[in-house]
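[Solved] Which block belongs to which protein?

Original post:
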Amino acid sequence: MDFQLNDEQRLFRDTLRDFVDKEIVPVARDWEQSGRYPTEIVEGMKQLGLFGLAVPEEYGGLAADTVSFALTFEEISRGWMGIAGILGSHSVSCFMLARHGTEEQKTRYLPDLATGKRRTGIALTEPGAGTDLQGIRTVARKEGDEYVINGTKMWITNARYADPLPVLVKTDPTATPAHKGMSILLVEAGTPGFEVTQDIGKLGYKGTESCEVVLTDVRVPESQLLGGIEGRGMQQALSSLETGRINIAARSVGIAQRAYDEALNYARERTAFGQAIGEFQAVQMRLAEIAVRLQAARLMTYWAASRMDDGVRMDTESGMAKIFASEQALACATDAMRIHGGYGYSTEFEVERLYRDAPLMSIGEGTNDVLRGVVAKALLAGKATIR
C-alpha cells in the first residue's frame, strides 16, 4: 500500500501548483466579482496541455492517469473553482468521445480538442430533467441521412465555446425503458437553429458560463451520431460521468485545501485580547477539524482515482468519493468562514467565495442523495464490498 504520488505525478502537481499560484490566485477574486471571463487563464491551460487530459496520445493528448486528472482539478479549484468547470465539462466530453466515438469522429475532433483549439462540453440537463435523464424531452427525428433536433437544454457549461457540443436526445421517444431510445448527437457551433439564449445567474461557480441552449429544427448528418449506433446515449453519458465524479471530488478537495490555507493564515495573523486567535482552543479545534476533513477527502478521492487506473468498474468508488469530498468541502468552507468571524462574510476575503462555490459540489454529476442510492444498491447486490 503506497499513499505517495510517483515522481511523474509529483512533478505534474508542482507544475500545476506554480501555474495556479502565479496566474489564478492573484486575479480570481477581482475577476469573479467583475464577471470577467478568464481568457488569459484558458490560454495558459492550453499551453500546459490540460485540454488534452482525457485525450489519447495518438490523437495528441496527454492521456493522463486518473490520479493526475484529479490533481489537475484539485489544484485549479484551490485557485478558483469556476475555472475548473471550463476544463471539467470539456474533459468529460473528450473522455466520452475517445471511448465511444467512431474512428472518423475521433480523428475529426480529438486532435483539436487536445490543444484547446476546439472546446467542448456536454448537454444533458433540461428544464424538467436533471437527475432523471430518462425524462428528457429533446427529440431527434430521422429524415433521410439527417437528424432534426428540437428541445431545450439547461445549465450547459462551455455552451458558448463548445464545438462540437454532444447533446443527449431521444431518437425513439416510444422506447421502453426510455434509455433504450436515447442517443447522443454531436452538434457543431454555428449550426442553424442552435442558439444559446441566456447565461444563468448563479450563487457561485462563476468564471465559466452556465447556459440555456435552445435547439429548433437543428439538422445534423447521421455521421454525428456518437458511436454510429442509436440507443446507446444513456450508457455513453453515464460512463463518462464516472470521471466527472472524480473531477467533482477533486474540485471539492481543492476548495477544502484553500479553506484550510485561508483559515490557518488568518488564525496566525489575526489578534484578539492581546494574542493571535490561533492560541484560543475553540479556534484550534475548528482548524484541526478542517485539516482532518480535508485529508480524509483527499485520500478517498485519490483512492477512487487509482481504482479507475486499475481498469475496474468504479461507479461505486467514484460515487463514494464524490459524496464524501463534496460534503467536506462545504463543512471546511463553513468552518473557515467562522474562524474569520465578520471578515468571513466580506467580499474582500477569499472564504466567502469558497462558501458560495462549495454547495454546487453536492449537486453536480449526480446529487449526493441519488449517489447514496447508487452506492447502497451496489452494496446490496454484492457488486461492491467494503471490508
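(Second protein starts here: sequence line, then its C-alpha cells.)
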Amino acid sequence: MSIDVVTFGCRLNAYESEVMKSEAEAAGLKDAVLINTCAVTNEAVRQARQTIRKTRRENPNARIIVTGCAAQTEAETFAEMGEVDLVLGNSEKLERASYGRVAQFGIEETEKVRVNDIMSVRETAGHLIDGLEGRSRAFVQVQNGCDHRCTFCIIPYGRGNSRSVPMGVVIDQIKRLVDNGYGEIVLTGVDITSYGADLPGTPKLGTLCAKILKLVPDLKRLRLSSIDSIEADDELMEVIAHDHRLMSHLHLSLQAGDNMILKRMKRRHSREDTIRFCEDVRKMRPDVVFGADIIAGFPTETDEMFENTLRIVDECGLTHLHVFPFSPRPGTPAARMPQLDRKIIKERAARLRIKGQEALLAHLRAEVGKKREILIEREGLGRTEQFTQVELDANIAGSLVSARITGHTERHLIAEPIGKAA
C-alpha cells in the first residue's frame, strides 16, 4: 500500500483530506493510513476510534496517523490508543514537513503528539489541488475557523478563530479546477458567511461569489456548502437573485426553531429571522430548495419548544434535513445544562427525520414533469440544481445533462435525458 485516507465529517474535511494526501505523497511518505476525524458529536469520535482499531487489524504494518478536529481537541485520547502511531493537529496536517519528518526519520514515542494551539493560527493557506479523486464536483476552501461560541459546539476549539483565504487565491484555485474539467465548485469552510472580515477591505461572501462568477466565465455551477442566514450580505442576495450559475440550493445552519432554545444555544438569529430569509429568497428564486441542520433534544427543550422546531420545517419550506440528536461535548456550556433523557432525544430526532422525509417526498412529487440540468456523479446517478439526487441513463461523470423528471422513489428522482451531455 502507499497512502490511504479515511475522512469523517464535513466537506471541508473532504477537501483537506485531498490536501493531506498530496502533501504526504510529496514528502515521500509510504505505507500509511491518514484518519481525518470529526468532533461534532460523541458518535463521530466513537466511530473514529472504531475505525482506527479496524484499520490496524487490516493493516498491521502500516503507520496510522490520526488528525482532524477530534485529534485537535482530544489529542491524548487518540495518543493513548496503541493502534495510533502519530497524532497531528488541524494546522500540522496540512504541512508537508509533518509527513517529511515521518518519511525520513520515522516516529519517536516522545513525538507521538504534534498538536499546536489552534487559536494561535492567524491565516488559512489557499492549498492548490487539481481535483478530488472520484468526485464530479470540487470543494474549494475559502475560510476556516469560527469566531462565534455556540454553547453546544466544540468546533472553534478544533479549528481556531475565523480566517479567510484571499479572493485572488480562491479564484486561481477555481480556474485551475475548471481547466481540469470540473463543472461544479462548492465553496466550503467552517462559517463561510463570515468570509472576509480579516482581509483588507473586509469583502463579504457575496463579493467573493460575484467575483468568481465574473472572472471564471467557464464555471458552469457554483454552490455554497452551508450558510448562516443572519450573516447573508446584500451582495450575496443580489447574486442569488440574478446569477443562476449560483445553484438554487441553500443549506442553513438553523439548529432549532424555538426562540428560547436558540437563545440558550447562543445563536444570533430568531425563528422569525429564518422564516423571513426563506421568504425573501423564495421571492427572488422561486425554484430554491432549502436544507438545514437541526439539533433534537437540546438541554431544557420542552415539548412545546420542540413543536416549534417541527413547525419551522413547514414555515420555511425545508426539504433536505440533517438531524443531529443532541450530544454533550465536554468543555462546552451546553454540557453543563440540565440534560434531557436520551430516550426523549432519540424520539425527537426520529420525529424530525420523519418530518424531513415527508418534506423530501413532497418535493420529489412536485418535481415530476420539470426539466432539470443534472450533474452526473457516477454512472446512473446525478444531482439537480437543487441538489436532489436523480437516477437516469447517463454515465459520463462530471458532465451536465438536460433531463425531464419522469418519476421518483421515496429517496430520489427518476429522469430521462433530453439532450447531449455538456
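Accepted answer:
You had them paired correctly. Confirming on the second one: The mean pLDDT is 89.
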